[in-house]
Specification:
The protein has about 180 residues and is an alpha+beta fold. The chain has five helices and six strands. The protein has one domain (about 45-180): Thiol Ester Dehydrase, Chain A. It is globular and about 55 Å long.
Length: about 180
């Protein structure tokens, strides 16, 4: 993927820019989900994640909605951060288990994505989450790490862990089976 393609995409969202013929755009705005889906085929998995981390591409809408941030990327392993907020709470005053599960699903999927060549996708087949300690605002930043444990032609498995960034306390773990989707 070249920066030129990403630059061309800016014209879709900025009405002040013009197309190559000099015609001003009329303010068409492409939703980040549509942009990511359109451009993912132009990147290998690691480059796609690096483009999101660097800001060349927008974050996935779920990451923006919940506040996930990519912190580290390596082939087969990724780390995201989340700052727990009351907007993440369930009715009993802790971060909802679905937020933690979504964070774990994200890092395990992205760990696999980081190994995939251009044009190959994935989807989660199953996920098993174990909640070990509550996550609250007082937990402060948490780090979620996903690691691929097996990468086959058709399926992969991954492990995920959420830890408190300041204490290293293990808060939740997960395992996942993922389907590798080839063209």
């Amino acid at each position: 993927m070249t920066a030129a393609l990403a630059q061309t995409d800016l014209a879709l969202s900025d009405p002040a820019l013009t197309d190559p013929a000099g015609t001003p755009h009329t303010g068409i705005v492409e939703h980040p989900a549509d942009k990511l889906a359109r451009l993912v085929a132009h990147y290998d998995g690691l480059a796609f994640l690096q483009a999101i981390k660097s800001g060349e591409l927008p974050p996935a809408p779920i990451a923006e909605l919940l506040g996930f941030e990519i912190r580290q990327l390596a082939p087969g392993a990724v780390t995201f951060a989340l700052n727990p907020d009351e907007k993440h709470y369930n009715p009993i005053g802790t971060v909802h288990g679905g937020v933690a599960a979504t964070l774990l699903d994200t890092v395990m999927g992205c760990a696999l994505h980081s190994l995939l060549p251009q044009g190959v996708g994935y989807t989660t087949l199953d996920i098993s989450v174990r909640y070990l300690r509550p996550i609250t605002v007082q937990t402060h930043t948490v780090w979620a790490t996903g690691t691929v444990t097996h990468h086959g032609r058709r399926t992969a498995t991954a492990e995920g862990r959420i830890v408190a960034a300041d204490t290293g306390s293990l808060l939740a773990t997960a395992t996942s089976t993922l389907l590798v989707v080839r063209p």
